Amino acid sequence: MKKFTINSINRISFLLLLFVAGALFSCEEEDPTAPAEAKAAPVIEAVRSMDPTKADSTFKQSTLGSIIVIKGRNLEDTRFITFNGYNASFNTAYASENYVIVRIPELTPTVATATNVSNKLVVSNSKGEAVYDFTVLPPAPIIEAMSNEAAKAGDVLTLYGKYFYFVKDVTFPGGVKATNVTASADGTTLTVTVPAGVTPAQGSVIVTSESGKSAANARTQLYSTLGLISNFDNKSFFGWGIPGENIVTSAPGINGLDGKFGTVQMAVPGNGGWANARVMHFADYGAGSQILPTTPAANYNANDPIANFEVRMEVAAANTNLNGIQVQVMIPAADGKEYDAKVDLKNFVRSTDGKWYTVAVPLANLANGSTKYSKYSDALASKQIRVAAFNTNAADVPVTLGFDNIRIINTTK
C-alpha cells in the first residue's frame, strides 16, 4: 500500500484549493441575471389583453402604454422584445414557457411619429426570434379647435388637433354620424360634412378611432347661442363704429352665415391707428343694462377667474392680406381705462376666400399696460365691449372682413 507523507497531503490540498478558487472565479465572471440557454427559438401564437374579462380574445393591435400578454412557446428564456424595432423592458419573472407579459413603451414609433413603421412585434432568445404582425396605435384623437363652430348641415367642417389616425367615425351633438370623413396624412386635420339633425346644445363633436374617443372640451362644442352678445339679427346691441350700411347679408366675396353680419371694409390705418369704421361697439345705452352674459349662473359666475373666459366670433376674409392684421377685443374698466387683447387673424382664418372661421380671444390677455383683470366681475363692471380690426403694419392695409356671433364662452364648462 502506498503511503502519503505530510508533504504529499499538503500538495493535494493546495491543488484542491486552486480548483475551488478557479471554480468560484468562473462563477463570478458569469452574469447571474442572464437568461439560461434556450432550448429552442420562440414562437408567437397570439396576443391578448391582461384584462381577465377579455382573456379569451386575441388582437393584432394595441395603443401605446398598453400591457399585453404574448402567448406562444419557448418564451421562458426570452431575452429581448421589440415593437417596431423599439426595445421594451420586461420582468423575466413574468415569462414562462407559454406566456410573457410586457408593456408597450410610450416611445414606440407609430404612424404619428414615423413615416414608416414595420408594424412588427419581435421576441428573441439565444436560439432565434419570432416575428408577429402587430400594429402599435397612437393615442386617442385630440380635438384642439374647429374651423367654424357655427357650421350647419351640409357644410364642410375642419377639425384641428392631433392623432386623427385610423378614424372610424365622427359623431355630432344629438348622436348623428358625420359623412365624408377625411383625415390628413399627418393626423392633424380632419374634414367632415356636417350631417342633418344636429342639435348643437346637446353635446360635443367626438372623433372615434381604433385608439379610442376624443374628449369633449370647450373647443368641441358647436355654436348654440350660449353667451351671445350680438348676431346682428335678433340680438344686437350695436352702438357705434362701422357705418350702419356695413351691417349686411353679403359683402364682396362673403356670404352671410345666417342673416346679417358686420363688416369692416376699408384701409385699416397702420401702427394701430384709430378709425371708427374698423370698430364695432356693443352697449345698451338706453336701458344701461348688462350686455355681457350672466346666465346660466354656472357658466357666468362673477367670481370666476377671468382666465376661464374667451370671446369667440366667426370671421370671414375676402381678398385680404392678413399678415399683421389682428382682431382686437376691448372691455373698458368701470373707470374708463381701456383693457384690450389681440390675436393674429391668420392663426384662425386659414383662407381669404370668404369662408367663415371661429376666432377665439382669451380674456386672460385683457390688459391696460401691465395691469390685467383677475375675475369675470372686472369685465362685467364695464357693461360694454368693442371688437375691432387692428393693423400692426406700418402702412395702411385694405381689408374686407365679416364678423358674426360675438359671444363669451366659459372654456371650463
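(ticket continues) Second input and output from the same batch:
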Amino acid sequence: MIFLTIGTQEPFDRLVRTVDAWCASSGRGGDLFGQITERATYKPNHFAWVPSVTPEDFQTRCKQADFIVSHAGMGSIITALTYGKPIVILPRSAKLKEHRNDHQQATAKRLGKRPGLLVAQSEAELPGLLDKLTAEKGATGGEALTPFADPSLIAALRTFIHAKPR
C-alpha cells in the first residue's frame, strides 16, 4: 500500500494531481490511499481518498504503507522515519502560493540525503521516484528512528550542563 498525505493545514493540488496522473498511467491507483484535506480544489479520480484521517488512522496507514508520498512537512517525515518507511516528498512552493514561505524547500535540502527520504524538486521528478519505490516495494527505507537521542548529543549536553560557569 502507498499512503499519500498532504498534511492538515493547506491543500496541495499540485502533488495530488501529479500522483493521480501517475496512478492513471501506471495502473497503480488500487495500491494508493490519500488524505488530501477538505479544502482541496483538485479531487483525484484514480485512487481512493478522504479529506482527513484521525491521528490513529494516520499512524496505522503509515505503519502499513510500503512507502509514503507527502509534502515536506516535519510530522509526515518524522512519522515515516520513525517506522523506517521510505518517503517521497515534494516540497510546497511559496512562489506557487502553496505556502507562506519556502521552509519546506529548506527542509528538503537539509534532509534530502537521508536514507529512505527521496526528494522530488518538481512534479516532473515525482513519477520516476514513485516508479522506483514501487519496483523496489519500498525497499529503500532507512533505519527507523529510535525514541532516544543520539549518544553523542546526550554527551554534548552533559558536558554543557556540567561545565563550570565563567
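Agent notes: Residues 56 and 74 are 18 Å apart (CA to CA). Residues 13-26 form the longest helix (14 residues). Closing as not reproducible unless the customer responds.
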